[in-house]
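Q: Convert this sequence to structure tokens.
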Amino acid sequence: MFSGSIVALITPFTLDGEVDYVGLKKLVEHHVAAGTDAIVSVGTTGESATLTVEEHVKVVEKTVEFAAGRIPVIAGTGANATHEAVEFSRMLDNTGIAAYLSVTPYYNKPTQEGLFLHYQAIAQGTDIPIILYNVPGRTGVDMKPETVARLSEIKNIIALKDATGDLSRVALHRELCRDDFLLFSGDDATGLDFVKLGGQGVISVTNNIAAKDMADMMHLALKGKFEEAQAINHRLMPLHKGLFVESSPIPVKWAAHKLGLIENGDLRLPLTELSEQDRPVVAQAINDANI
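A:
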């Protein structure tokens, strides 16, 4: 259903802090032209934590509208209360999305059984495909491969975004999960190696500012042309790392603004603009990646 280079899309804001829908349309057009394979709308990189519920739904709706069937849109969802995650999914059911990307509950550190029951409840509330999202560095909880395997037996849970950076899990997930279960890297620095080991692609932050390069790299890798893909990845590696010099999406929004992809790099508190000391780091990464 999905493969290749999927962008974890940033959400642009106007200078007065409102969602910039003109800027959002520009970003969607940019990714369609660059060959990006799918868009994640209002995932964690899209600042889902600081958008209101009404904004969240509208941004997803507008992203689908702007995509106009040319590129699949995956809606970011997730909450640390299961009933909220279920309700969020129901609110987005009729927006025209292709799937949900649902991050693990954050802060309250559920057990593995709690994680299973959480996602089971979400799956029971919708017929739309669900992509699990495991990012323990941001949520404080790690969904173990055995739990992912249990969840993969649920028909409309179709994939995992694994942002652990632990490449040993690719083979383990492949062994434990059902045959058609999809695996995506959520870690740009190890994304190509993830695909070499059997993954289907990457859900990427780097894609926001290097969309064509990421698409070319993933498409080459999926064809088994790893040497050519590696050449691109080597050039992008400073970017993969530089875009996380501060909490994401702080650096990537600054970079997108510097490259003229969005009107400004503003974020909502408690996130703040990229610090003066780290701007040269990101600027050098952009230069080194030849963007």
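The radius of gyration is 18 Å.
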